[in-house]
Write a structure and sequence with these properties.
601 residues, 3 domains, Immunoglobulin-like, mainly beta
Length: 601
């Protein structure tokens, strides 16, 4: 009735039926009780991608309130991330966004949001909350969690777990079993890995699914061909409402939707129990991984089938939509989302690895048209700054390599291809950051044979396989250090990344603004004289991080001027056209070798 703890003096178990009424026991609430209350923290530390906020609040043991959140959305694999240690690190846990989704974070423009920690995790278990790029292991900003918290428990957190109310802990897999078994179930969409451990079968499903879809795997209803009726399967998915991964034991008595008695039903709805124990779950790049285990032989003779270890057995698999009850709905029968051929597995096998598709490295092929690559010709002085990658139109589709959200802007163009001549000297004015204590803003430029860069991350053996042409020197002990690290200047989004909706880079650049951290800071200068032995193709890259730069084409003396002088090629031209024109310039007699077309053609 709206009362609070401070409004009452006691709580008792009281019998009202006796004439004199009886108090069976009580507890008194002391006056001036200091009840738990929300705690206000500082704002996110501002490190990269325009991340900032107002003061963050811990509302209860599982809930953060983040007001006025700004983030450009350009990180390729960024999530809310929590963990332990003196600063954010790779041993963290993803936190679903305000919608309960584990998809990479979108851009935010001053929005107020609430996020909740997954599983049994509470604020008492963590040291920090961050926005973190998993693929590139980079911290965009964080806030520390104090140790003297006294916040309210989360709703439902005080419930006592009994034999009928079990809870699942979501963890992230840290290692793989020594004997890896893997079979492709649906090409490019679903793989299964398994391992027998004592009396249990441990299964991991790896599927390219949406968050409103499930992946199902289990024993076919008939040996020798895929049959749904009589099949014993597990349906695995991410529950956005409960913000946890789930794996549910199903039995299929018919092809109809479950009515509580018959159909495609969770065992728990038809009088059985869920014999599946979830072990871990993760979602990244549209790939969902869910690991679970169950007994090889359960005590449910009707709903569950045993996993034999003395022979092969037919299995089935499917991907389909979840209904409003978060139960499996009918899937399509096209053959791309359900097994149509007989697939058999010997679950006692070891190192049975026939998977061919690495779903983790798969990238969606459909998307907006990439921007054409830009070119710099005939320029002896080139500025080097940092800027966003341009999403699905920029760095990755241009280079074919993954990006971590920022890239080099040479003469304020996104990763143009640069043409230089042997024997000439070129000056790069570098403004990629010189603060070594802030990795997100420390990007020394160097010229290399590597299409990835990141020389400072390499082992000594890896360094020996790379040739550096400029931007790196060595100290007395033989350790490499970069020489071109100037003040930090970055082309930043005025709001959020709008690359997906903008057809040209010129229009996209209008959504950016140049920001330099220290107006009085100085750039670094990298002077590079291109020697005759320099190969035809080298790269400009970042010394400390991989995949920020792109190509430098090296040509002989005078060849660049012929092309630029004859054709006026400056700033922007496609690589295909440029190569064609270069060929024509180098081989002036080419047309004389070509036969004339017949008259009238």
């Amino acid at each position: 009735m709206g009362k609070r703890i401070r409004d009452i003096r006691w709580l008792s178990v009281w019998c009202r039926r006796f004439t004199f009424q009886v108090d069976f026991g009580e507890i008194f609430i002391p006056p001036g009780l200091d009840v738990p209350k929300p705690r206000v923290l500082p704002e996110f530390k501002r490190l990269a991608h325009g991340l900032r906020s107002s003061n963050i609040s811990i509302l209860d043991a599982k809930t953060f309130y983040i007001p006025n959140l700004h983030y450009d959305g350009a990180g390729p694999d960024a999530y809310f991330w929590v963990g332990n240690g003196s600063e954010p690190n790779i041993m963290g846990t993803k936190v679903p966004n305000e919608l309960g989704s584990l998809d990479p974070l979108r851009g935010y423009q001053g929005e107020d949001i609430e996020i909740q920690l997954p599983g049994n995790l509470t604020v008492y278990d963590i040291d920090w909350l961050a926005v973190w790029c998993v693929e590139y292991r980079h911290n965009f900003g964080h806030v520390y969690i104090p140790k003297d918290l006294d916040v309210p428990p989360a709703l439902g957190q005080t419930k006592i777990a009994t034999t009928t109310t079990t809870s699942s802990v979501i963890t992230q897999p840290t290692s793989k079993p020594a004997n890896v078994n893997c079979k492709e179930l649906l090409r490019g969409k679903l793989n299964v890995m398994w391992e027998v451990m004592d009396d249990f079968i441990v299964i991991e499903l790896v599927g390219r699914i949406r968050e409103d879809q499930y992946m199902a795997f289990g024993i076919s209803g008939s040996h020798g061909h895929p049959q749904m009726i009589g099949a014993d399967v597990v349906v695995a998915f991410y529950d956005r409402r409960q913000r946890r991964f789930r794996a549910e034991d199903y039995y299929m008595s018919s092809l109809a939707q479950c009515d509580g008695k018959l159909g495609v039903c969770p065992d728990e709805r038809i009088g059985g129990k869920n014999d599946v124990e979830i072990l871990s779950g993760d979602r990244s790049h549209g790939v969902t991984k869910i690991k679970y285990r169950r007994l090889l032989q359960t005590n449910e003779a009707v709903n569950d089938r045993a996993y034999p270890l003395d022979r092969q057995i037919s299995v089935i698999a499917a991907i389909g939509p979840l209904n409003s009850r978060d139960e499996a709905n009918a899937h399509s029968h096209t053959g791309t989302e359900v097994t149509v051929d007989d697939v058999q597995i010997d679950f006692a096998s070891k190192n049975d690895h026939t998977c061919t598709d690495a779903l983790d490295s798969f990238r969606e092929e459909d998307g907006p048209e990439p921007w054409p690559s830009r070119t710099i010709l005939g320029e002896k002085t080139i500025t080097a700054r940092i800027g966003p990658t341009g999403g699905k139109r920029g760095y990755t589709p241009i280079t074919g390599h993954p990006s971590w959200g920022i890239a080099w802007y040479m003469n304020d163009l996104l990763i143009p291809e640069i043409y230089v001549e042997r024997g000439q000297t070129y000056t790069f004015i570098v403004e990629g950051g010189d603060e070594t204590t802030q990795p997100a803003k420390y990007h020394p430029l160097y010229i290399t044979s590597s299409h990835e860069g990141g020389y400072g991350q390499l082992t000594e053996a890896q360094k020996r396989r790379e040739t550096v042409y400029a931007g790196v020197e060595y100290d007395a002990d033989g350790y490499a250090y970069p020489t071109a690290a100037g003040r930090y200047c970055e082309w930043k989004h005025k709001t959020i990344d709008r690359s997906a909706e903008i057809a040209t880079f010129d229009e996209y650049k209008k959504t950016l603004q140049l920001s330099c951290d220290d107006p009085n800071g100085q750039p670094a200068y990298l002077n590079w004289t291109v020697v005759d032995e320099t190969p035809d193709l080298v790269y400009y890259q970042c010394f400390t991080h991989r995949n920020l730069g792109w190509k430098i084409h090296v040509v002989n003396a005078g060849e660049t001027s012929k092309i630029s002088g004859s054709h006026g090629l400056y700033g922007s031209v496609s690589s295909t056209v440029l190569y064609t024109l270069l060929l024509l310039a180098l081989v002036p007699g080419l047309f004389a070798l070509l036969p004339l077309p017949p008259r009238g053609f």
